[in-house]
Every structure is written in C-alpha cells, then in structure tokens.
Write a structure and sequence with these properties.
Blueprint (H helix, E strand, L loop, with lengths): L1 E10 L2 E11 L4 E5 L6 H8 L7 E6 L2 E2 L7 H7 E4 L11 H11 L5 H14 L15 H13 L5 E5 L7 H16 L3 E5 L3 H6 L3 E6 L2 E6 L1 H6 L4 H11 L2
Parallel strand pairs: 3-8, 3-9, 6-7, 7-8
Antiparallel strand pairs: 1-2, 1-4, 4-5, 9-10
Helix pairs in contact: 3-4, 3-5, 4-5, 5-6
C-alpha cells in the first residue's frame, strides 16, 4: 500500500530522516517507537506531505506523492491523520467537526454525512455529544472524536502521531481501546507511540527509529523478547523500567 524509497529530510543542517526505505502492506498495524528526536513524527508527517521531504519517493497505492503533479488533497482523503492535540475546530459543534471535510470535498452530502457521523459517534461511545462544543469535552473524548473525524473520509490508512501523550492516564485506556477495535477491523495504521503495551499486543510490526533511521523493523515478539540492536535494548530498558 505504501512504498518509501531513499527518503531524506533536513531542517537546516540537521538531517532528521536519513535514507529511509520500507514497504507497508494493507492491514499492517505498525507501532513506531524510539527516543525523542529520532524522526518518528517527521516520518509520519512526510507520509501525507504535511512535511515535504527533501528527496526520495513515497508511493501510496502506486502514486508518488512527492511528484508535484500529484493531487495531494485526493491522497489525503485516503490517508487520515490523528494528532497529539486533537485539532478540532473550537467554534464548531462535534457534528459540524465530523461533517465538514466529507461534505466540503463532496464525498458525502449533508444528510449522508450526519448519518455516518452518528454511526461513528456510537462506535466511539459518544452518541450524546453531537451538539457539544469541543471545550465541553475531556481530552480523551476529544481524541475519540478526532479518530471518528478521520474515519469520516473512509481512509485506507490512519497515521496516529502520539495520540495519547496529551491525555491524563485514566483517559489513555479509552482511546487505546478504540484503536484496538480499528486494528481488529483490518484498518492499516501507523502509530507513533510511547505505549509499549499497545506496541506489544496490538501491532504486527514495530519500527524502532533512532537518529533518523528505521534501525529495527521486526515483530513485537522479536523486539520485546529478543532485541538484538544495542540502542533498542537501551531504549527498552529505560522505558520499561521507568
């Protein structure tokens, strides 16, 4: 579904991504772990061109999104992103937040969008919040709405950028539970996360990113039970014994 070749990204003299090559298949649940500054969020943001890579190729379903001729808005309809800080429109109700993109892009008419939004609100356990404003919701509820909003576009892939890091501990579980349900449905997901339990129990692949490289691409079993990479061992010792 996604093929990445020789991907590089610099900020000034700092090379944040160095020659990344990987392929992501339909249904993959990839947990992206690693120390801060390793390039995890930048890598994710390059996949839907929120950050423009300096060189390399990113193919999504055979289309190179770094080609200037590519209609990136069309690609983004199929590659949704869920951010750390929710990014809901503060001046719109939850229902308006959910319906805005599919109606504006003419994927759904207003009536169909409202129907779909209600189904998704049920899925994320927030049926009673359609007329609420974002400031009336807890962090966990906002993030569940952000996930519902990303599903409104019928994406093939959802990119999650540290979806639980801005949440209080008791709210993390409710968001991870929705993500586990999506994984069971076979949605392709790339998740930058500090939640090692999620990485271990839900992902089928783990990318350990360090110094701008995917230093390890392996199964959770190999990563957690038989880590061979020294930097990965150090990282796991630190996070698991914290």
């Amino acid at each position: 579904m996604i093929k990445i070749k020789n991907l590089h990204k610099k900020y000034g003299n700092l090379e944040v991504l160095k020659n990344i090559n990987t392929e992501i298949s339909q249904g993959d649940i990839i947990a992206i772990i690693g120390p801060s500054g390793g390039g995890k969020s930048t890598f994710l943001r390059c996949i839907n061109r929120l950050e423009l890579a300096d060189s390399g190729e990113i193919f999504i379903k055979g289309e190179n999104i770094l080609d200037p001729k590519t209609d990136i808005n069309k690609i983004r309809q199929k590659v949704s992103m869920v951010f750390q800080h929710f990014n809901l429109f503060a001046n719109k109700t939850i229902m308006q937040n959910l319906c805005l993109a599919p109606v504006k892009t003419k994927i759904l008419n207003q009536e169909a969008a409202i129907k779909k939004a209600r189904n998704l609100l049920k899925k994320v356990g927030l049926c009673d919040k359609e007329d609420a404003m974002p400031h009336q919701l807890s962090g966990g509820q906002k993030q569940r709405i952000a996930i519902a909003r990303s599903l409104m576009m019928n994406p093939d892939v959802i990119l999650f950028d540290e979806p639980t890091s801005a949440l209080d501990p008791e709210m993390i579980g409710e968001v991870l539970s929705i993500m586990k349900d999506l994984a069971k449905e076979g949605l392709t997901m790339l998740v930058v996360t500090h939640e090692m339990g999620f990485a271990k129990n839900v992902a089928n692949r783990i990318f350990f990113m360090d110094k701008g490289n995917i230093a390890v691409d392996d199964t959770p079993k190999e990563v957690f039970e038989h880590p061979k990479n020294e930097r990965l061992k150090e990282f796991l010792n630190k996070v698991l014994n914290h």
